């Protein structure tokens, strides 16, 4: 493992308005090394190569922090819905330590990994819940009134909006990673937007390092009453 991927990530982050100092880069490297260590037994990701982990998965978490930081309170309440290996929520927490981050994952083996990974960070305000969105008991304090609910590959966008909406605070946002620009006029999405009472705030294009096409982080807000 070389530092080249981490240096490339730091350069991309700078372009997005995030400065990743040596301590933060070391923390990201430690977390991703733990993913690699456990991946064979836990089956966390098919992209276990170091460059993929840094420039694909960690890059998304860094970009999310860069987009959300100007829009949210200084210590926002963040819910990473369907956390998987924690690439978005944990990396965002490492980049933005003041954020209160809850990782919500329904798959038991991934939940156990997230607990171990959260413990290794040593950061306060990083919690893990074993729960499937849209089912089970009533939502608790760590799921309600979130400043932002983030999802990546949770479900098709209309379903992801339906699952995320109950957890938003009055001024909360949904941040959805998309490979293409969504069409709000498309009938299924339009129906979901009307049913959930959210609307597109803005769509933020970006490129992961080394990629030739844009991706999107699309932000949704509650409609004004």
List the main descriptive attributes of the protein structure presented here:
alpha/beta; 225 residues; seven-stranded mixed beta sheet; globular; 22% strand; Rossmann fold
Which structural class fits the helix and strand makeup? alpha/beta
Separation, N- and C-terminal Cα atoms: 52 Å
Radius of gyration: 17 Å
User: What's the CATH first level?
Assistant: Alpha Beta
How many strand elements?
7
Overall helicity: 40-55%
Overall outline: globular
Can you describe this structure?
The chain is an alpha/beta fold. The chain has a single domain, classed as Vaccinia Virus protein VP39 (Rossmann fold). Strand 6 and strand 7 form a beta hairpin. The N and C termini lie far apart (52 Å). The relative contact order is 0.13. The model has no long low-confidence stretch (mean pLDDT 94).
Secondary-structure topology with pairs:
Elements: H1 4-16, H2 22-42, H3 50-68, E1 77-81, H4 87-95, E2 100-105, H5 108-121, E3 126-130, E4 146-151, H6 157-164, E5 168-178, H7 187-196, E6 198-206, E7 215-222
Parallel strand pairs: 1-2, 1-4, 2-3, 4-5
Antiparallel strand pairs: 5-7, 6-7
Helix pairs in contact: 1-3, 2-3, 2-4, 2-5, 3-4, 6-7
Can you summarize this structure?
With 225 residues, the protein is an alpha/beta fold.
């Amino acid at each position: 493992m070389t530092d080249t991927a981490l240096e490339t990530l730091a350069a991309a982050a700078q372009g997005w308005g995030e400065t990743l100092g040596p301590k933060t880069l070391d923390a990201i490297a430690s977390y991703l090394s733990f993913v690699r260590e456990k991946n064979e037994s836990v089956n966390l990701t098919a992209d276990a190569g170091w460059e993929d982990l840094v420039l694909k998965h960690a890059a998304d978490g860094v970009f999310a922090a860069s987009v959300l930081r100007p829009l949210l309170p200084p210590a926002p309440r963040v819910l990473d819905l369907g956390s998987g290996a924690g690439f978005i929520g944990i990396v965002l927490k490492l980049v933005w330590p003041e954020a209160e981050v809850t990782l919500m994952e329904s798959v038991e083996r991934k939940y156990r990994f997230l607990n171990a990974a959260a413990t290794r960070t040593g950061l306060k305000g990083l919690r893990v819940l074993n729960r499937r969105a849209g089912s089970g008991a009533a939502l608790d304090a760590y799921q309600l009134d979130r400043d932002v609910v983030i999802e990546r590959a949770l479900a098709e966008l209309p379903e992801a909006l339906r699952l995320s909406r109950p957890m938003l605070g009055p001024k909360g946002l949904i941040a959805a990673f998309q490979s293409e620009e969504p069409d709000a006029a498309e009938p299924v999405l339009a129906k979901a937007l009307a049913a959930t009472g959210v609307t597109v705030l803005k769509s933020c294009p970006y490129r992961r390092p080394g990629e030739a096409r844009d991706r999107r982080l699309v932000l949704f807000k509650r409609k004004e009453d």
